[in-house]
# Entry
Amino acid sequence: MATVVEQTTVHGFMFPNRASFDRLTAERGFREGLGEGLDGLIEGALATVTDDGEVHLFGAVVRGTTTFQATAKGTARNAGPLGQELGKQVLEQLRARP
# Structure
């Protein structure tokens, strides 16, 4: 019996499964939520997806010796907006401490 592998293709890139796509969507959403104007700052995000479709997202931005970070969780269906909202939260932290 052949094994069927679910794959998701977006913009020509193939993802081995839906969870991989959802992780990337959340992480990219974080970057989008930060917006423009972060030249010289280090930023990153890491998402995981549970078997029941819950996304856990950690995002951080480093400015000098200070790290601004936040976490969020939500459904995989809302991975992009979840990431965007988390990015906005970290951006607010950055703006509050010039």
About this structure: The mean pLDDT is 88. The longest strand covers residues 54-63. The beta strands are 8-10, 13-15, 42-49, 54-63, 66-75.
